[in-house]
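User: structure tokens for this one?
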Amino acid sequence: MKSLTGAFSYQPGLDGIRALAVGAVIVYHLGAGWLPGGFLGVDLFFVLSGFLITTLLVTRASPDGRVDLVDFAVRRVRRLLPAALVMVAVVAAVAAFTLPSYRLGALRLDGVWTVLQAANWRFVVSGQSYVDQFAPPSPLRHAWSLAVEEQFYLAWPLVLALALRLRVRRTWLLALTGGLALMSAGWMRHLYAAPDPSRSYYGTDTRAHALLVGAVLALLLLGPGRELWVRWLGRLAVPAVAGLLAAVVLVSDDWHGYYRGVGFAVALVAAAVIGAVAVAPDGPVGRVLAAGPLPSVGRLSYALYLWHWPVHCWLDEATPLLDRPVAAVVAKIVLTVVLALASYYLVEHPLRARRRDAGSRGARAGARGLLFAPAAVIATLGVVGVATVHATPSLVDDPATPGTRPRVLAAAPSPQAVRLATAGDSVAKSLAPGLRRFANTRGWGYVDSAVSSCSVAALLMVESDGSPYPAGRRCPDVVPAMQRALVGRYDPTLILVHSRWETHRVRRADGTVVEPGTAAHLVHVRRQLRIALQRLTAGRAHVVLIEPIPLADSLCRRLGHTAATCRAQTSDPRAERYNVLRRATAAEFPGRATVIAVTDLLCPGGECTDEVGERRPRPDGLHFSPEGAAWAAPQILRRAGVLG
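Assistant:
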């Protein structure tokens, strides 16, 4: 393979591409509606990384095809690991003083997987449940893309080094690389239909296509026929930039087309832009991307990416900024830049200088420096462990899976004892600690059959494109089975139900999608709720439907609603229509089903503040903490008519 060692010296335009990529991601995370495709900046980073790494490995190979993988590893570790470890340590330290204890356990796992360069698989394994969506996002969630790159840096150099050592023909190597890219894109398309779309979004195997497209670009420009590709890149440069800009403006993160080929097309377009800048830095695109502050911002891009998301999470939870969106954006940008500059000049830049000094003293000095990496990793893991030492269980247990049986939380001491049960969604499940404590003190039995992310009516909730809601597609099968098992096995005398999913878009058995608020939706929900009550009242139980409790103000605002909308939750006409539906359906079961309201307990005076009196019963704005459940349980039972 022809070596073009001098052809790809430092190009400021490539740093300009980095600047645009990180800028798009930051603007996207700031919630700018005019840039829905800002997340494509990550794809641009992937293509650029694949191109640069492949170029580096090929151009530094010896004449007999040997690649110094140790030197490559030393450079990658020095370049990427220290700043990332500092970021993780700071995030953990801040969490120790700011996060409630029930969130520290999840952060501990996020931190460990991030340090081990496998954060993307952590988010695949943990999934994106309904409960997760109402909790604030992890300040380490952005580390998934860093993990994908690091895993690529482990596998691809080995493959490429072997191919170069065996002197595999360039056409065969290109075919292999291109084939792997196509397989990865096809695998992303296939897995998008899986129950958890995060698998196709976070997976290394489904994301490798963008990195491999960059590798294909490098191989094309480093061998015979380069002149042909240079000419084509010159012709495609401006249209490719236009296409990339159009994608960033038009493609949204919830569009299924991104997973079904558009993401791969974006990678190809990004490769055309990168190639045009690499081979013609003095061309129109290269000059624009090398102009002004873009190269300087690009050199800072890694630090900006590391810190922008933790800052975003920290300030999103700062209550004084909730009603000042402009001030929040300014504060996020300023703090991100300050931390990025500190990271660059105090961590990244000094280590680069040491790397140059080590290079002048030989590879042995670099290898000795690499030995410090395990110590740094262990130290960071220690910081994460100490910072999360006071972690407590999450507010809600993991969602039930098909085949899960109701949980007996307090055994009934006698057949005559009250047999309490809960059904419905994760809010009902979060009441379990308080109800169990109360049941134990009264000598009652208590069984929980609530299913997180599901309506008590076993509705199939769907997204705007008609695809099933990820965490809730199991509901039509699991919920009826749980309810039948509850009544058939445990014969409860009182079932408390909280279920807020009835106002979601649903799909009927005939495949028709019905929108909330329409007559068809109301008819369908009432029919399904009636069937659910028939199941729950098949024994001797009296069913008490609790009107859905509005969100606490901080959660309502965090989900993007205006202050006026959040204040009006207790008088929302659509919510009242569904409460009327609940009452009408319960009336069809006289003496067996009733509806109660507890909104005034959590929203005194119609204001759904986070604090009620001097307590915060719902730390995440929706689910009860154990202490909150212990406070609410007796009051709910009193309204249910169980207590005098």
